[in-house]
Amino acid sequence: DSSADATATADASPMGTATATADATATATATAIVTEDTTAATAATAADASTADTAAAEQHAFDKIIIGEDQLSDYVGKPIFTSDRIYATNPVGVVTGLAWTSMGGAVLYIETQPAGRFVKRDKKGGKGDGSEGEGDSKGGGSATVRSTGQMGDVMRESSQIAHTFARSYLYKLQPENDFLETTPLHVHVPEGATPKDGPSAGITMVTSFLSLAMDMPPRSDLAMTGELTLTGRVLAIGGVREKLIAARRSGVQHIIFPKANERDYTELPQNLRDGVQVYFAQDYDDVFRIAFPQADGENAS
């Protein structure tokens, strides 16, 4: 028993305690080293991630692309609708009209130029002569009207009515101007492969004839549509909605509709009517005042 007690006492001696303490210290030191390594690794990973984010941001800033109108088709494809505008500014004798087809509305230009031999006129009018050819229609006197552009019978009749009315109207404005009395004319509607018909280009044709005769360009931001009678009354047309959409798509800011179509227009949604100034004409005097704002007061009256 005394021997066993001595052994137990020896196990509990300071030497045993020191050994246990050394082991605990070594374990704590190892744990601290592992913790420091983990912290260092985490910090390194975070630093790498931050560096990568900064590099990506710098690369993104460097790759910034500014897309202009010329590049739109490369990113979103070709435009669904394109403008029908041919002229940015209408020259003398060219007036913008509006048409209605099975495919919707469209901008329709009426172009008029002297045909055959003619003498250059001054501001008061001029002289001219020419022979009547195939496709010509007589308006009286030596003046004729030749029409091209796949016009149908009704549209050809409209050109004859427009020519006769334009001559009488010009005489009231400028009695000394005999241009329409003596000069053969050629009226053309572009896109010659497309058949065209109907009476709604009447006021557009008269405006084209008067523009040429007075040597005065019409407003370029204006489009018009309306049937014209021989006495100058403006009659209703069809396709108001489609023609309005076509005008907006082409950047037209002012439109002349017949007075008889005012109700059709006011029933359209507000979003279609916004941004466009619409005038309603009951007779050609209304059209002239809007189409030729630069005309002098005496003629405009």
Automatic annotation (TrEMBL):
<dbReference type="GO" id="GO:0004252">
    <property type="term" value="F:serine-type endopeptidase activity"/>
</dbReference>
<keyword id="KW-0378">Hydrolase</keyword>
<keyword id="KW-0645">Protease</keyword>
<dbReference type="InterPro" id="IPR027065">
    <property type="entry name" value="Lon_Prtase"/>
</dbReference>
<dbReference type="GO" id="GO:0004176">
    <property type="term" value="F:ATP-dependent peptidase activity"/>
</dbReference>
<dbReference type="InterPro" id="IPR014721">
    <property type="entry name" value="Ribsml_uS5_D2-typ_fold_subgr"/>
</dbReference>
<dbReference type="GO" id="GO:0051131">
    <property type="term" value="P:chaperone-mediated protein complex assembly"/>
</dbReference>
<dbReference type="Pfam" id="PF05362">
    <property type="entry name" value="Lon_C"/>
</dbReference>
<dbReference type="GO" id="GO:0005524">
    <property type="term" value="F:ATP binding"/>
</dbReference>
<feature type="region of interest" description="Disordered">
    <location>
        <begin position="119"/>
        <end position="152"/>
    </location>
</feature>
<dbReference type="GO" id="GO:0005759">
    <property type="term" value="C:mitochondrial matrix"/>
</dbReference>
<feature type="domain" description="Lon proteolytic">
    <location>
        <begin position="89"/>
        <end position="294"/>
    </location>
</feature>
<dbReference type="GO" id="GO:0003697">
    <property type="term" value="F:single-stranded DNA binding"/>
</dbReference>
<dbReference type="InterPro" id="IPR008268">
    <property type="entry name" value="Peptidase_S16_AS"/>
</dbReference>
<comment type="similarity">
    <text>Belongs to the peptidase S16 family.</text>
</comment>
<protein>
    <recommendedName>
        <fullName>Lon proteolytic domain-containing protein</fullName>
    </recommendedName>
</protein>
<dbReference type="GO" id="GO:0007005">
    <property type="term" value="P:mitochondrion organization"/>
</dbReference>
<feature type="active site">
    <location>
        <position position="200"/>
    </location>
</feature>
<dbReference type="InterPro" id="IPR020568">
    <property type="entry name" value="Ribosomal_Su5_D2-typ_SF"/>
</dbReference>
<dbReference type="InterPro" id="IPR008269">
    <property type="entry name" value="Lon_proteolytic"/>
</dbReference>
<feature type="active site">
    <location>
        <position position="243"/>
    </location>
</feature>
<dbReference type="GO" id="GO:0006515">
    <property type="term" value="P:protein quality control for misfolded or incompletely synthesized proteins"/>
</dbReference>
<keyword id="KW-0720">Serine protease</keyword>
